[in-house]
């Protein structure tokens, strides 16, 4: 049996970039198909449960929906080689995965949808070609783009917040560019789980759409090179004259990486705290049964969370998906020795991210049959 996987994805899809990069960097043979391909609805959707991408079909015919699940499928069978063994690097790697896939959605959506004079033609091309080839293809494409443009507001992008969103993103971009002056990946000389998570917004939206890509090229060329590097089988690091081959020794965390996380903590911490409060109140009122969808189109939205960033009030949809991934950070932390926990606490405190260890939902989220669902009440 051939060992070629089928990846249903699209170049403009934020979450697809994370899974695609993992397959490329780990030399896993795959063919990519659009979700508009006839085989997606016919062969994949019955098992994937939701028409979302990325979705992977294994050579044996197993269907795996969602980027985190796709990466976990391979990592679990390989002993998690993309997760550093050092406790501080390990926790930060998992935390970058959360921040990349959830904490940076606001700038990703802003820079895609609020600059139509630069982006409209490019983004429209990709949305059109992600639809099935049918007479109403254009209508469906325009409808999807309208939905996503509206979703940008749900993530907290308004006329009042745009300048703050841009300032926070550009501070982060500059800090990450400084970090990549010294190493080609977050934790040294090979990509981690955190790199794949962070790539999600920095590739499809912020590194390809014309307006934000121009910003990255002009202000953060080392970040742009990292985006390119993450989509190459080889390490693609000729600008580093004495490269290594592994994560940094002795669980080292460079000061430049701490600075990156400090810029991200500014809105990630207050938003996560506010979202936990809203979702927990919703759980208390609604008491969803075990096995009910917690994330995605089949799930009920818990509501909007209000939080303050730099003395400005922002409002964004409270999303359980953030806590589904944050559970993994917290579980790995709890499995550490007391001494290692102390070291992680000190690091997260310096980064301004210590509170995230305590931001929890009153109900856990688990995966059943390609869906993220509410776990049983304890």
Key features of this structure:
single chain, 378 residues, alpha+beta, Glutaredoxin, 2 domains, four-stranded mixed beta sheet, two-stranded antiparallel sheet, 14 helices, 8 strands, 54% helix, globular
Quick structural overview:
The protein is α+β, with helices and mostly antiparallel strands and 378 residues long. It has helices at residues 14-25, 38-48, 67-78, 87-103, 105-113, 116-129, 137-154, 162-179, 193-204, 210-219, 221-229, 255-286, 320-334, 338-351, and strands at residues 5-8, 30-33, 55-57, 63-65, 304-309, 312-317, 365-368, 371-374. Strands 2-1-3-4 form a four-stranded mixed beta sheet, with helices on both faces. A two-stranded antiparallel ribbon has the order 5-6. It has a two-stranded antiparallel sheet with strand order 7-8.
Write the layout of secondary structure elements.
Layout: E1 5-8, H1 14-25, E2 30-33, H2 38-48, E3 55-57, E4 63-65, H3 67-78, H4 87-103, H5 105-113, H6 116-129, H7 137-154, H8 162-179, H9 193-204, H10 210-219, H11 221-229, H12 255-286, E5 304-309, E6 312-317, H13 320-334, H14 338-351, E7 365-368, E8 371-374
Parallel strand pairs: 1-2
Antiparallel strand pairs: 1-3, 3-4, 5-6, 7-8
Helix pairs in contact: 1-3, 1-9, 4-9, 4-13, 4-14, 5-7, 6-7, 8-12, 10-11
The counted number of beta strands is: 8
Count of DSSP helices? Answer: 14
- What would you call the structural class? alpha+beta
Shape: globular
Tally of structural domains: 2
Spell the H/E element sequence.
EHEHEEHHHHHHHHHHEEHHEE
Q: How much β-strand is present in the residues?
A: 5-15%
- Report how far the terminal alpha carbons are from each other: 44 Å
Overall residue-averaged pLDDT value: 95
Largest sheet: spatial strand order: 2-1-3-4
Main sheet summary: 4 strands, mixed
- Which percent range fits the helix content? 40-55%
Task: Report the uncertain regions.
Answer: none
Radius of gyration: 20 Å
């Amino acid at each position: 049996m051939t060992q070629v996987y089928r990846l249903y994805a699209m170049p403009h899809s934020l979450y697809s970039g994370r899974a695609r990069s993992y397959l490329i960097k780990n030399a896993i043979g795959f063919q990519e198909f659009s979700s508009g391909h006839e085989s997606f609805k016919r062969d994949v959707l019955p098992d994937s449960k939701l028409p979302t991408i990325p979705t992977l079909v294994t050579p044996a015919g197993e269907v795996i929906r969602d980027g985190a699940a796709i990466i976990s499928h391979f990592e679990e069978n390989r002993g998690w080689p993309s997760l550093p063994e050092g406790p501080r690097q390990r926790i930060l790697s998992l935390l970058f995965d959360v921040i990349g896939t959830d904490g940076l959605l606001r700038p990703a959506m802003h820079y895609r949808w609020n600059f139509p004079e630069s982006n409209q033609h490019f983004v429209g091309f990709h949305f059109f070609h992600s639809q099935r080839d049918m007479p109403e293809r254009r209508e469906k494409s325009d409808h999807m783009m309208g939905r996503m443009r509206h979703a940008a507001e749900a993530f907290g992008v308004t006329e009042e917040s745009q300048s703050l969103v841009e300032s926070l993103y550009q501070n982060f971009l500059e800090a990450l560019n400084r970090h990549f002056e010294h190493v080609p990946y977050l934790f040294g000389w090979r990509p981690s789980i955190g790199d794949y998570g962070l790539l999600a917004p920095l590739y499809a939206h912020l590194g390809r759409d014309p307006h934000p890509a121009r910003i990255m090229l002009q202000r953060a060329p080392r970040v742009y090179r990292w985006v390119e590097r993450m989509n190459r089988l080889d390490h693609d690091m000729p600008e580093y004259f004495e490269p290594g081959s592994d994560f940094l020794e002795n669980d080292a965390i460079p000061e430049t990486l701490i600075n990156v996380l400090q810029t991200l903590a500014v809105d990630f911490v207050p938003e996560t705290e506010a979202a936990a409060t809203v979702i927990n109140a919703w759980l208390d009122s609604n008491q969803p049964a075990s096995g009910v969808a917690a994330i995605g189109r089949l799930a009920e939205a818990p509501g909007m969370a209000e939080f303050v960033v730099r003395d400005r009030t922002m409002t964004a949809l409270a999303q359980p998906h953030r806590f589904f991934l944050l559970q993994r950070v917290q579980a790995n932390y709890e499995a550490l020795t007391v001494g290692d926990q102390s070291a992680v606490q000190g690091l997260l405190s310096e980064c301004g991210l210590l509170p995230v260890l305590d931001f929890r939902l009153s109900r856990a989220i688990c995966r059943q049959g390609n869906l993220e669902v509410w776990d049983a009440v304890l």
